[in-house]
């Protein structure tokens, strides 16, 4: 599978999980998530903004910071997220997208489209797990998708100066011997999967 297809799979799984909270008791949106200090509503607002930002970057407009701002009021968070997911998937499906330059302000500049979509892909493997963890339901991503996500996660710089509050990822955690691809990805990107049992493989 190419990176556009891998990304589509991860985004669709994240959307499926977000939609599990649709119409549920509003307390679902106030559940804690593995993103420290963020409840599910805030996490989904972030995911929604990131989809719009990456869609703009695919169109050559990623440097406009307004595209990356989290909405102040989501209304129906699942519907807002679904619309944003559809927008980014449509943008990434355009011919030649992997050869364009994407401007990603949070990461400090321009990147080849293939690389930028890889960033988005691994982010949505992790965010899909975040939502699954918050709701206490299983993550449904195949082993080959998880292995591909790990390959990207291993290329993310681990310099502590670029990790933590205000950065895209928390500091990397130690990976135990024998960890599977999902657990290794989560730990490399600062998540503690053992604190959220029952969501992975």
Fold topology:
Blueprint: H1 3-19, H2 40-58, H3 77-92, E1 101-104, E2 109-112, H4 113-135, H5 143-153, H6 181-188
Antiparallel strand pairs: 1-2
Helix pairs in contact: 1-3, 1-4, 2-3, 2-4, 4-5, 5-6
Provide an overview of this structure.
By secondary structure, the protein is mainly alpha-helical. It has a single domain (3-195), classed as dinb family like domain (Four Helix Bundle (Hemerythrin (Met), subunit A)), CATH 1.20.120. 47% of the residues lie in helices and 4% in strands. The protein contains six helices and two strands, in the order H-H-H-E-E-H-H-H. The chain has helices at residues 3-19, 40-58, 77-92, 113-135, 143-153, 181-188; strands at residues 101-104, 109-112. A two-stranded antiparallel sheet has the order 1-2. Strand 1 and strand 2 (109-112) form a beta hairpin. Helix 1 (3-19) packs antiparallel against helix 3 and helix 2 runs parallel beside helix 3. The longest helix has 23 residues, at 113-135. The protein is globular. It starts with a helix and ends in a 13-residue tail after the last helix.
Q: What characteristics describe this protein?
A:
globular; mainly alpha; 47% helix; 201 residues; Four Helix Bundle (Hemerythrin (Met), subunit A)
Helix content: 40-55%
Rg from C-alpha positions? Answer: 16 Å
* Uncertain parts: none
Which CATH architecture would you pick?
Up-down Bundle
Order of helices and strands: HHHEEHHH
Reading side by side through the largest sheet, how are the strands ordered? 1-2
Number of helices: 6
Q: Any idea what the shape is?
A: globular
- What is the number of independent domains? 1
CATH superfamily: dinb family like domain
Distance between the termini: 21 Å
Largest sheet: 2 strands, antiparallel
Mean residue pLDDT: 90
Number of strands: 2
Derived structural class:
mainly alpha
Would you tell me which CATH topology applies?
Four Helix Bundle (Hemerythrin (Met), subunit A)
CATH uppermost class: Mainly Alpha
**What portion of residues belong to β-strands?**
under 5%
